[in-house]
Structure formats: C-alpha cells, structure tokens
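Progress note, sequence design subtask.
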C-alpha cells in the first residue's frame, strides 16, 4: 500500500535500560488531507470513498513505543465534518486528543483543520478512524501499529505484518444512516453489507518463506459484521489482543468483533510449493435478512510460490472460534478483587415516539451534547463532579481517580453487541452465555485469577458481562506545550467517563 504522507523526524535520544536494542523516540508527523476519492475494493461497484492525501486504502501507520505523533488533520471533504480517533490509545494526559465528537472535541467542519499531538507509550495493534457519526465505514479507517523494542515474544518470530478485515457497503453512510434510524425501519434492522474485504481488497496475498514464523496483526475495521478468521493448513498462536500481550494460546480460528485486534504467530511449513487460503467470514447471525446474492466470505492467500495457483477455500461445516475469555495476560496481572464502585448498564433496543428504533442504557438513549463532555469538565468548576452537568441523555458517571470500577452490562436484546471502553483496557471478569439474562451479583461467580484484558468485548444475546478497570485516566489535563487546547486547569482528581460504544450500528449511531 502506497504511503504518500509527508513524514519528518525530529529525533530525541531515549534512555533505555541496558541490554535492550537501542532505539530513538521520534516525533512522527503526518499531514492528513481528508477528502473524497474513488474506490472499488470488491470489484463490484465503484463509489466515492474517504481517502487521505488523494489515496485510498488508507496508509498503515507504524510507530515505535515512546514516539510523539503529530497528525495535522485538514478537512477537505467539502460536504461533511470530521474528526480522528486512535482506537485503544489511552491518551492519558492528552484526553483532548481522543477524538470522539461531543465527548472530547467538536467536529472539524469542512475547510478547517485540527492537530492531534500525543505520545504513544503503549505497544500493540490499534487503528485510527473518524469518530464523527457513522462516517468511518465510508473508508476513513486504517491500522495504527506501535512497535515494541521490548516485545516479550521478540525472539520467536522472523517478520511481522499487519492487515485488516472488514465489511463493505456500496452505498454511502449518510443515506444508510437515515434509512436505518427511521420509522420505516421500526425493528432497527442494521444495513447488511454488500461484501467482505481483507486488507481493503479481495485479492490479498502475503508472500511467505518456508519455515519462517510470522507475527500477524489483524484488525476488524468494519462497521458492523463480526468476522471469523482462519488459515487453511496452519495454526495460529495468539500472543496479543487489543494491545495486551497474552500467554500464547493455539487455535485454528478466531472471531473478531468490529474494532477488536488479534496478534498471532504462524509458522510456515518447512516444504511447500502450494499456497494456502486465509478466509474471513462475516457473522451472518447479525444480519436480519441475508440477501441471496451476498458472499459473506473473503479469501486471501499465504503465497509460498507466486507462480502456483491460489486455491479456492474449502467450505467448513461450522464455526468453532477460540474463546477469548480463556486468555491470560502475559504479565499475569491478577484480578482486581476489591471493587470501589460498581454500576450496571442495562441495554435494550426500543422505539421512541418518532417510530424509529434506538439503543438504550438504563432507559436513556445517548444524545450528543452540544457542549462536549470534556469542555463541561473544564468549565463547570465545583459542579464538574456532578454527573448531571453532562446532560440527561449521556449516561455519565463521575469516577474517582485510582478507584477500581466495575461495569456490569446486561443485554436485554437478542443480538450480539461489541462494547469498547476508551482510555483504558479492562479485565473481563465474567461473561455469561447467550440467554442467561441479567447478571446477579449474589450468584457464586468464580472469576479468573488473572483475567484477560482488552478494550473491546462482545456481550452475548440476552447475556451479560462484568468488567473491571482502574480509573487511572482522568478526563482533564493541565494546559501545556503539548496540549495547548486544554483551556482551563482543574485540579480535582476526578473525571467524567462517558459510556459509549463503537463499531456496532445500534450503539454507535444514535441520533435523535
Ligand atoms: Cu476507541
């Protein structure tokens, strides 16, 4: 994929512990001229897509832990506002760089610019995308990799490579959204994608060498569809989920909700002159109606021999993906067994007086506040610690810095839904099977000793989950040279945390 971004480096010497490879923390600057270009990734329908600097697919961005990232966003769309979010980055101390419109910033109108400036202190597989309404599936999304000089699996692979899977629509989002949240769609049926993509194409190939071990980083950058992923004739050894290293776990198949990432090692066969299919298959259980013409699968290939044929993928009988709940973090961080603050979010889908279908937490459907939540934190003085100042339709909870917070999510809907927490990863302490109903704290739950941590998690249909995290990322920061847009200083050790979700139609795209 061509990189036509103007990069320049301002180098700083980083002090590294003895014995590690020397590295320098750099300042990496990208100019993002966001504008419309033409694209036809599935070969079935050319359409307008949102590109950067005249190009689409968007560039794979590579950084090294410790780098300062400066992204000069210039909105050249002409007809739509925009924003940029860096999914999974904590933005601890730079909360105003997080991107969600109405939470940490206002939209960037056409013809205007915004500079995102932050340090990447966490290694792993992330992605970047517009956080303006449902804009990103029009193409405005790509992978964001932070390389780790101290990767604990460093000696166990020869090369690393990042690629994506996604769903794809032939129609543009503004029209799809209008039809989706409409009295004409009272059941809230989500738009069904037209096809699936692997690395924004349907002809993706990876040149591999026999015997080598590769570290693949896979991200579901789609709008809606979860994806089953497998590689014929090869096993995957999972070592990372959502930026968190895991104890190695072997599997033949993984399932990625939208916005989830997996890092896994794959060792090539010692002798092979044939090529092998890599398949991603959209989770059709999410679709209310499956059009007869829809091909839910997309195939890519591990290419041992470029002159050999690319085999058609074999059909499979059933999907048996790896259960991510069984993962153990590589650092062994133990269960937060003392909870300071716990609250429930009860999810349901229901209709309002306009006849359209909305998603609700605790009987409230989110309405983007006119004043972004972070600005309210900074301007309401003593009242900043009262949840009510953030608006009656935001489901705000004010957390105390340092507390261990538990969120119980009860799914009163018959669909699967992924949830994403900004600014933290969380321990997944409990996840009920489909049909379990609401979480009952007085039941005898046995929690994992060292729960998996990640930033995006799926709740099962009519199921529930409980997650725990340390509230160590206050949603405010002092003005500084790196952070000139924080206008007011607030010394209180509390911040607002707005429960939002991403990547799932009913939850991310709530407009009145
Ligand atoms: Cu995010």
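Output:
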């Amino acid at each position: 994929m061509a990189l036509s971004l103007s990069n320049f480096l301002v180098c700083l010497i980083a002090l590294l512990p003895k014995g590690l490879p020397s590295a320098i923390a750099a300042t990496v600057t990208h100019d993002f001229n966001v504008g419309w270009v033409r694209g036809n990734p599935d070969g079935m329908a050319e359409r307008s897509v949102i590109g950067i600097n005249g190009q689409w697919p968007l560039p794979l961005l590579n950084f090294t832990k410790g780098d300062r990232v400066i992204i000069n966003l210039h909105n050249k769309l002409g007809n739509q506002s925009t924003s940029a979010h860096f999914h999974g980055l904590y933005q601890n101390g730079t909360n105003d760089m997080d991107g969600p419109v109405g939470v940490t910033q206002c939209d960037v109108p056409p013809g205007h610019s915004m500079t995102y400036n932050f340090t990447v202190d966490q290694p792993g597989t992330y992605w970047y995308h517009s956080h303006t309404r449902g804009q990103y599936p029009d193409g405005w999304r790509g992978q964001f990799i932070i390389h780790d000089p101290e990767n604990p699996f460093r000696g166990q692979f020869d090369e690393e490579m990042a690629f994506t899977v996604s769903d794809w629509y032939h129609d543009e989002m503004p029209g799809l959204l209008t039809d989706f949240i409409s009295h004409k769609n009272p059941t809230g049926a989500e738009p069904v994608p037209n096809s699936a993509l692997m690395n924004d194409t349907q002809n993706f190939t990876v040149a591999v060498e026999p015997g080598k071990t590769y570290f693949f980083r896979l991200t579901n950058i789609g709008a809606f569809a979860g994806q089953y992923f497998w590689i014929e004739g090869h096993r995957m050894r999972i070592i990372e989920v959502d930026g968190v290293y895991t104890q190695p776990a072997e599997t033949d198949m993984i399932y990625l909700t939208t916005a989830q990432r997996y890092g896994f090692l794959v060792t090539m066969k010692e002798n092979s002159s044939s090529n092998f299919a890599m398949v991603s298959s959209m989770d059709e259980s999410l679709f209310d109606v499956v059009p007869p013409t829809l091909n839910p699968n997309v195939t890519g290939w591990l290419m041992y021999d470029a002159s050999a044929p690319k085999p058609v993928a074999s059909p499979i009988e059933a999907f048996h993906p790896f259960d991510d709940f069984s993962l153990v973090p590589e650092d062994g961080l133990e269960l937060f067994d003392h909870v300071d603050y716990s609250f429930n979010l009860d999810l349901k889908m229901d209709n309002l007086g306009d006849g359209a279908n909305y998603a609700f937490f605790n009987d409230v459907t989110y309405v983007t506040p006119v004043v972004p939540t972070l600005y309210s934190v900074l301007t309401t003085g003593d009242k900043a610690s009262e949840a009510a100042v953030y608006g009656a339709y935001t489901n705000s909870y004010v957390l105390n810095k340092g507390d261990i917070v538990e969120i119980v999510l009860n799914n009163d809907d018959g669909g699967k839904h992924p949830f994403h927490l900004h600014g933290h990863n969380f321990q997944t302490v409990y996840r009920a099977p489909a049909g379990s109903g609401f979480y009952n704290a007085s039941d005898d739950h046995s929690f994992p000793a060292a729960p998996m941590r990640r930033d995006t998690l799926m709740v099962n249909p009519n199921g529930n989950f409980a997650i725990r995290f340390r509230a160590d990322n206050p949603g405010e920061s002092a003005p500084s040279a790196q952070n000139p847009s924080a206008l007011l200083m607030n010394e209180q050790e509390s911040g607002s945390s707005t429960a939002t979700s991403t990547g799932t139609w009913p939850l991310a795209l709530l407009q009145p």
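Residues 402 and 471 are 5 Å apart (CA to CA). Work on this subtask will continue into the next period as scheduled.
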